[in-house]
Structure formats: C-alpha cells, structure tokens
Design goal:
This protein is α/β, with parallel strands linked by helices. It has helices at residues 50-53, 86-93, 96-102, 131-147, 152-158, 170-179, 199-208, 223-235, 276-281, and strands at residues 5-10, 21-22, 27-28, 32-34, 37-42, 46-49, 58-63, 74-79, 107-112, 161-166, 186-192, 213-218, 253-257.
C-alpha cells in the first residue's frame, strides 16, 4: 500500500503576496508604507506587514496512505481561518490531513497559506477573477510530482474539488466560487462555522449548481447569518435540511446547528461530533479508497 506523503510546497499561484485592491472598496490592500516595508491595516488586527504576514507562498499537500490514482479521486481544498499557520494549526492542531485520510475517501488534501497567524480573512489573489482556477491547474502538477508517478496526473486533472472553509476561510471560499472560474469543478462546499459574510455568493453558487452539495455546520455565533442564508435559498427555490444526511447526494443542502457547548476555536476537531471533517467527507458517495483496485 502506498505510503502517506506530505509536503509544504511554495506555489507560483498563491493567495499572497498581493498588491491589488480590496474588492468593492477601491482601496489598495497594502495601505501602509514605512520605508521599504509595506503593510495592510486589518480592521481587527491593526497593521500587519507584508514581509511577515502576506508573503508565504507555501501550500500544504498531503496524499494519504493507500491513495489509489486508478480510482475516482477527490481534491479536498482547505481554507484555514484567522490566526493560523499550516504546520501548527492545519496539520497539527486541527489534524486536517489525518481527518482526510481517516474518512476513507480516495482524496488528497491541498491547503494554501493565507495571512500568517493574523486576525485577517483577506483572500489576496483569490479576489482576482480566474486565479482560483489557475491555482487548481498548478495543483495538478504539484500533486503529480509529490505522488511520484506521472500516470497520476490524469487522475488529478479529472478529480472534482470539495472546498472546505473554516471560520475566516469563508472569504476566499466565497470569492473562489463567485469569480474563481472553477465552479464547474467544485462538487461540494463544506463550511465549518464559516459563514459570517458574503452569504449571497454561497446562495448563488448552490442555486446554480444543483448537482453539487453544500454543508454548513455552525455555532450560535453564526445563527443570524444562517437565517439569512435560509431566506436567500428559499427565494431561489433551493430546499435545505437541518441535519447531516447519511449520504451527500447531488443537490443536498444541510445547514446544521450545533449545541451551546461547542466552541468555535475547536470546531474543526470537536463540533457536533468529534472530527467533523472526517465525518462529512465519509458521506460523499462514489470515491471510496477501499475494496479491490480496478484494472489498468
């Protein structure tokens, strides 16, 4: 059985660095200059400097043990929240690679670094039209090299995407769906306490892609936003349910409230169940990693 492979790989197409404007504000993202240093003023975090916070091009790539490129595969793209780094939080604290592996899904993980350890949900270059699609194109080559077998490239090129966003990851997820020009490739969206704005972009996407699925599990902090999403979905003729179904069939929309005891900070590992990402991914049909391998 092929061993697990994990690397932090610098990408050419990455969310940061970013020297453009903030959408709908006509203001430069880098709005502070101190000598040769440039910085961005975050509403919650104050001034963050580009060289420290907005220059990490690395992407966490993880291929689980037993991944089979001969089978139908999925690319799980994970957008972290505020105050995060790929190694400390996505890999170690939130255990995202482990959860993907243990889901049983024949899937690989791709997690780009956004603002480094900062109170900032900015999307960077993912605000730009078409950049998310270019990011996915580069991902195919990077995953193929990590896999080590050139024949795997066809599997990665054909693989649908499941986009997962936690907390502040909602912003790049929303713009990836709205302007990323890769929406036909996105099979599903999973929001883990990650709906705090840009609600119309998620409603528009699922209403236009009835063969996809949307799961949004949330704490009471996002109750009002989910009430608004429900209103928008109703207006667009999209039905939804309040519990996670046994199978995430095409067209499923599940908006799942969690108990009062659930903490936002721990949501990726402890929500309505332990390891919620693992639980959700395990319910995607048609991409099992187990069983007899197909013939070439």
């Amino acid at each position: 059985m092929p061993a697990a492979k994990t690397q932090f790989v610098p990408f050419d197409i990455s969310p940061f660095p970013y020297r453009g404007e903030i959408p709908d504000k006509n203001l430069p993202f880098m709005d502070v200059v101190n000598g040769e240093r440039r910085g961005h003023t975050s509403p919650r975090g104050g001034i963050y400097w580009e060289d420290m916070t907005y220059s990490d091009r690395r992407v966490l790539l993880s291929i689980p043990r037993g991944f089979d490129a001969r089978r139908p595969a999925v690319i799980v793209v994970f957008f972290h929240g505020n105050g995060a780094t790929l190694a400390r939080d996505v890999q170690n604290r939130q255990q995202v690679p482990r959860q993907v592996a243990e889901s049983g899904l024949n899937a690989v993980l791709v997690a780009p670094q956004f603002a480094v350890d900062a109170l900032d949900s900015s999307s960077g270059r993912f605000w730009e039209p078409g950049v998310f699609a270019k990011f996915l194109d580069e991902t195919v080559g990077r995953l193929t090299r990590l896999h080590g077998d050139a024949r795997a490239q066809a599997a990665f090129q054909a693989a649908p995407v499941v986009l997962v966003a936690y907390s502040g990851g909602y912003n790049p997820a929303a713009f990836a769906l709205a302007v990323g020009k890769a929406t036909e490739r996105v099979r599903g969206v999973v929001l883990l306490d990650g709906l705090f704005a840009e609600i119309d972009k998620f409603a528009d996407w699922i209403s236009r892609h009835r063969d996809a699925f949307l799961v949004s599990a949330y704490t009471r902090a996002a109750k009002a936003e989910h009430a608004e999403l429900q209103r928008m979905l109703t207006a667009r003729g999209v039905s939804f349910q309040a519990a996670l179904p046994r199978q995430l069939a095409p067209g499923t929309v599940a908006l799942v409230p969690t108990g009062e005891e659930v903490k936002h900070l721990d949501f990726v590992t402890e929500a309505w169940v332990r390891d919620p990402l693992k639980v959700v991914l395990a319910r995607i049909p048609g991409f099992s990693r187990t069983g007899s391998p197909p013939k070439r």
